[in-house]
Each structure stands twice: as C-alpha cells, then as structure tokens.
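Appendix C reproduces, verbatim, an entry submitted by the partner laboratory led by Prof. M.T., so that reviewers can inspect both the input and the predicted structure.
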Amino acid sequence: MLRAVFPRLNAWLNALPDPRLQRMCLYRAAHLWWQIIATYLSRKGSRNGFDEQRQSGAAAWNLGLLCGQTAEDPRFDGQPTVTCSDNAAHHASRVDPEAVAQIPVLMFHDLLERRTFDDARLLGRWYRIVLDGSVKGKCRGGFAEGGKSSTNGARYRYVLQSSVVGPQDTLFPLMHDPSSTV
C-alpha cells in the first residue's frame, strides 16, 4: 500500500543527509528511519520495548520489504536484521531536523501532483485548510509583586495545527507549531 501511495518515500529517506561512512554501514538510511517510525507505531512504551521484539517473527523480513533492503542485499548474507534503537537514534541525532521536516512536505506535494484533493476544493477552486489551536498545557504566571500569587496569572500553551481537507472530508495534518503561548 505504501509503495502505491508514496513510491518515492524510500528514495527521499535515503536522500536525507547521512554522515556515516557508507562502506562501513550494514543498514541503508531508509532502514534506520523506518525503524524509528516502527518504534513509534508499535506503541511499546519505550525504545527498549521495541528492541525486545525487533528480531522476532517476521519483523526483520517485513521491515526489509518496507524499506527496500531485503534479504537479497549482500550486506545481510540472506538473513535480514533490524538495527537497534540506539543506532537509529544516534543516526537521527546527527541529521538536521529541517531536512527531515521536508519529508512530509514532499509527501503532500506528491498528493497535490496526483490531484488527490481536487474533489475537496471549495467551489472547485480553493483548497480548504483547517486551523486548530488546542491547549497543550496550563502554566502559572509566577508571583505578583510582593511575593503573592497572581489570581489571574494563568497562561496557556497552545499547539497550532493546520490540516488540509481531503476527499470525504478527511483531514491531512500538514504543519504544527507547539510553541504558542497566550
């Protein structure tokens, strides 16, 4: 399904800046990024929770199919493996977050090129964008003069989310800003 919807995704992941010495690497960049995504999606509660089961069952074979690095890759000697989360996290920490943030933009641009949102346009012309400000947390404003607590000093932190309305009124999250304070 992923190859049908985003056939260039692995190429984009492999094209991210990679500070590793490639001749010494067992895993392609896409494998490391898919390991991070799989850790998040597995909802094991921690990286260790994912690591405990990363080599069990068909996980290594499935991740290999997903990232395009199958058992036929000469680096695997016929038996694919999944990297540990420490390796993936170390790799991600060395890549500029701005470059990684471009992946969803490329995905969205790909959907626009395929005219995915055309049926959802307003009056057949404009894309519909929904902006949502949700409370992320409530903070106290500190103390007023004289060391007394301020009665109306509460401050709220919002997450601003923009989503594009798609076919059948589905929402496609595009960008968010977690730093807004009011």
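The two ends are 42 Å apart (CA to CA). Additional entries are available on request from the coordinating office.
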